Amino acid sequence: MGSSGFSPVLSSTLITLLLVCSTSYGAPTHHPNKRIHIHHRVSSHNYKEALTKSILFFEGQRSGKLPRTQRMKWRGNSGLSDGSAANVNLVGGYYDAGDNVKFGFPMAFTTTMLSWSVIEFGGMMKGELPHAKQAIRWATDYLLKATAKPDTIYVQVGDANRDHACWERPEDMDTTRTVYKIDRNTPGSEVAGETAAALAAASMVFRKSNPSYSKLLLSRAMRVFHFADTYRGSYSSGGLRNVVCPFYCSFSGYQDELLWAAGWLHKATKLPSYLSYVKSNARNLGADEYDNIFGWDNKHAGARILLSRSFLLSKISDFEDFKDHSDNFVCSIIPGVPSYSSQYTPGGLLFKLKEYNLQYVTSTSFLLLTYAKYLALSGKSVECGGSVIRAGKLRSIAKRQVDYLLGENPLNMSYMVGYGKKYPQRIHHRGSSLPSVRVHPSRIPCSSGFQMMYSQSPNPNVLVGAVVGGPDQGDRFPDQRNDYDHSEPATYINAPLVGTLAYLAHIFGQI
Fold this sequence. Notes:
The chain is 42% helix and 7% strand. The protein is mainly α. The strands form four sheets. Strands 3-4-5 form a three-stranded antiparallel sheet. Strands 1-2 form a two-stranded antiparallel sheet.
């Protein structure tokens, strides 16, 4: 892995880029005394195209009645009676990956990360900003339905075991659409905390464009957080254990979600009560300060970087520890420094876990760019055992990871479907792998689809923008539909990538 992370180019010129500072959705603000010097080079990738496609992917994951503006035309209406089993309206939202279940925990994290992408880099998205906001609203409209009853959150629609026993299009679903909830007697602080974070973050996205909707999201976030904190408990160790495990068990506990949610509520409200909550609970809700995983389950690294902003830019001295812990996270990723503890594949891909590894690549890359923004605005750097690491280094590492994902790897394979000349053809995704309802309007029964699942035929419907789980530790990718660890896409893989691609498209003058 090269130190700069940039591809070979024909020429380069030194440019000065004025930093942007987030407003309600990341609109550019000039800071004449805060300039970043970047070697502006011609990129071998079209980040603008990748950004467009990364957002389009979410339309392929929609559940419910599709709008006239739907661009992923091979999809149709689905799940129109969701919630009826519990006499509630739970139509809408997203299928998390390649199946037809609506899991509330990863959906909420997806929403938080899409919102954070817009908050930090929305001003760089230009024409893609409305699409990004639509992707967020498709989720928040559903989360508002799921949290309509006080001290109750509907956290899942569909029996995952029965759903996974079928290979059928969402438009044909005939599996049990059982509704599962958390409440005072069956708590789930991790999913409730993440839902509060999602609603709070999204409220900032809509603050200027739709103030009334923003206020609704924020008031709901506050109520949901109170429920999460008052009735503490893990949803994967209580009454829902057999429902959510092994699919979305929480291994990191719920403490990280409470800290994460409080951080977002402080950012969204500026109320002293949330500041006090973070200050008084930081140690109790914290984990090992060297924890360097960030994803739908473990929020510690993300919470620390989010909260470090309060120290770096708002000068809240009580939050200095979050800057130190964020530095530890960064130092664990940079090869050659004393506290480096991460693994990379021979081709240079950050490798965290063998299942769905690209989710950690996209989430880590986003954190690096966001932290680089905070560092540059504050004139600070990171010290890793005597080595001074500046914002530019973090950006170059993030760019290198995105470039690998888009095709600069030993297989010359783009892991974003529909981007580049070579990308996965047999992704683990029911709707993509079966003939669409437009081509084959008659129903495909539950078990009939398995013939296609185990075939070597390419998927007939291109799920444009989907990022799959990715290659293994040796940069190998078999492109087999039944290899879900590597071939299945997920909303939470794409969500942080949206912000990262917006930054890169802007910095290379593509948008």
